Amino acid sequence: MKLTDILTHSIRGRERTPGMVDAARTRSAQFNPASLGNCILWYDMSDDTGNDGEAITSITDKSGAGRNGSCTNIVRCKHPITGKTGFFCYHPNSYVSYTAASIRTAAIVADYGGGYGFLITDSSNYNWHGGVINCLNATYAANEVKNGAWRINGLTITPTSYKWRTSPQVITVITTGNVSQNRLGYDRTYNSNYWKYYEVIFYSDAKTSDQIRQLELYLADKWKVPLQLV
Fold first, then answer.
1. Three-class SS of residue 1?
2. Which H helix or E strand runs over 104?
3. Using one digit for the tens of pLDDT, what is the confidence trace for 72-115?
4. Which of 12, 129, 172, 178 can pair with 141 through a Cys bridge, CB separation 3.0 to 4.6 Å?
5. Buried b vs exposed e over 24-46: b needs ≥16 C-beta within 10 Å?
6. What angle do CA 136, 189, 96 make, to 5 degrees?
7. pTM above 0.85, yes or no
8. Phi, psi values for residue 182, rounded to 5°
9. How far apart are CA 227 and CA 133, in angstroms?
């Protein structure tokens, strides 16, 4: 049985061999997202020991690409199940900025707390224009993002009609072309987006379906998000 199959059955509660499940989860925990290649940003504060609500001034980029995040009105938040640290855009003018990244694949664990719903933002463009509750605005979001392959918690979704969850969710997106972005949170000079981000990973290439499943399993197991893999 393959690792992905073992974990899929485990997540669905149908696996009958706990030893195999434990071994598979160990391998998932050891998975390094940067090992897939072309990783251009990876924010993961799960080993941070700060307190909930404390201010953050910067976030280290674990991808090796040097896109450390500069934080404006960002605070720590604790994951409701694991207690691990994420970062919260809690203020109308709250964002993490980084050197512009040309994104083809994004893998994110986050939950939505209101605002325009832009998952990824920028100081000048609105490629990921949120639909307020819905993932994307059908009119304003860039075609490369709107027509991309979207999955949330293991299910393929239509981003212009799917509603964001207010609990942690595993989000993967493969765009149809390069999309340059330089922020998370506040969009341009007027769109507030209230998100709790637990892990954010960007790649400069389009990942395969097997690689997307690897990312989903890694993130779901780490952040205890139920998946429905089909």
1. coil
2. strand 95-115
3. 999 999 999 999 999 999 999 999 999 999 999 999 999 999 99
4. 129
5. bbeebeebebeebeebbbbbbbe
6. 75
7. yes
8. -140, 15
9. 21
- What is the separation, in whole angstroms, between the first and last Cα of the chain? 16
Domains of the chain, residue spans: 1-30, 36-223
Instruction: Give one word for 78, left, alpha or beta, with left for phi > 0 and alpha for psi -120 to 50.
Output: beta
Q: Which of 180, 184, 182, 200 is nearest to 96 (CA)?
A: 184
Distance (Å) of CA 140 to CA 2, 108, 123, 125: 41, 22, 16, 10
Neighbouring residues of 172: CB distance < 8 A, sequence distance ≥ 6? 105, 106, 107, 108, 150, 151, 152, 212, 215, 216
Summarised one tens digit per residue, pLDDT across range 131-175 is: 999 999 999 999 999 999 999 999 999 999 999 999 999 999 999
Alpha-carbon distance values, 168 to 4, 104, 110, 120, 142 (Å): 21, 22, 5, 16, 25
User: Which helix H or strand E contains 52, and what residues bound it?
Assistant: none
The class level of CATH for 36-223 reads mainly beta
Residue at 188: amino acid letter: R
